Amino acid sequence: MKKLLTLTFIAVFCITGTLYAQKAEPKKWAIAIHGGAGNVPKDMPKDRQEAYINALNEAVSIGAEILENGGSALDAVEQTINYLEDNELFNAGRGAVFTAEGKNELDAAIMFGNQKNAGAITGVTTVKNPISLARKVMEESNHVFFAGDGAEKFADQTTVERVDPEYFKVQRRYEAWKRANAGTGGNLELLEDNSWKMGTVGCVALDSEGNLVAGTSTGGMTNKKFGRVGDVPIIGSGTYANELVAVSATGWGERIMLNVSAHALAMYMQFTDSSLQESMYYLVDELLNPKEAGFIAVDKYGNISMRTNTGSMFRAARDSEGLKEVGIWVD
Ligand code: ASP
Predict the structure, then answer these.
(1) What are the pLDDT digits (tens) for 149-171?
(2) Given CA atoms 139, 141, 146, 149 in this order, what sign does their dihedral have?
(3) What number does CATH give the domain 34-329?
(4) Residue 262: CB within 6 Å of ligand 1?
(5) Which one of 200, 222, 239, 250 is the catalytic residue?
(6) 200 CA distance to ligand 1 centroid (A)?
């Protein structure tokens, strides 16, 4: 009887193992991006909707073109995020949200899954493209994570472009920040929805060499206090990649961190032999509470998953087989 059970177990294991391995023919390349989770009203003005959709399409095309031409996932992720950082529609680089002290302090991280290597920075105020500095931390230092003044000093030793902190300030964000503060006496927790805690950009990519890379860049949470570090630059929380999957998060950073979310998805996938979609459901619908966060991920086969439990997540995806997706709301 015991022998029969063992044989049955081995047979089932082999069958499911094989099935998983055959679940998808690996795609040559795949890329997904997000421009922040939140709860964008569905009656958002048409011209604004169009502006976001156009920006998402443009951003994802930058990475897709690099990958289609045999370029690396690392370049695709960095250059796609550079575009989103430069575009003031998004809470990253220019257009970042304001801290409680009225500043813009930026966080970013990048992780190269197949090399188990990463770079991250937090609290920078003069680096035009924080994701590029994160990449330099990974490639040009013996460390993984630099903070505040240290990150600025490290930037001094590199070729990354520097700007006056005023560069990041955008009138629309400033007014929204003022309005929110005035309406709540500075206590944004009084606001009805969580949206002020959210907004970030991210990109995950698989290249034709099979490399998986995840990157995330953000101004963080509106009204964040002195020295607040969010999930984005914390490897395993907002950004993570290994040989199986690359993940980037957006949403309420404190909750994402407390669930070590990006790493949780990767480990769930690895240890339960679940598909990317199943693992994403576990993360978004079981591990996290409703209205907290959204994620994008790509696995080693080029499968893409983009899911949020907030009302909206700016997102887009492309792959070598012609996938072209772009969206804002959940339904
Ligand atoms: N997770 C980011 C942070 O908390 C914000 C966001 O993604 O919306 O810093």
Answers:
(1) 999 999 999 999 999 999 999 99
(2) negative
(3) 3.60.20.30
(4) no
(5) 200
(6) 6
136 to 28, 45, 204: CA distances (angstroms): 27, 39, 18
The pTM (predicted TM-score) of the whole model is 0.91
212: enclosing H helix or E strand? strand 212-218
Ligand 1 centroid to Cα of residue 231, in Å, is: 7
The C-alpha atoms of residue 161 and residue 126 are separated, in whole angstroms, by: 9
* pLDDT tens digits along 269-287: 999 999 999 999 999 999 9
Q: pLDDT for 232-245, tens place per residue? A: 999 999 999 999 99
Nearest ligand 1 atom to the CA of 254 is 4
Query: What pLDDT was estimated at residue 204?
Result: 99
Ligand 1 atom nearest residue 220's Cα = 9
99 is a catalytic site residue:
no
Structure tokens at 269: 């996938």
Task: Find out whether the beta carbon of 253 lies less than 6 Å from any atom of ligand 1.
Answer: yes
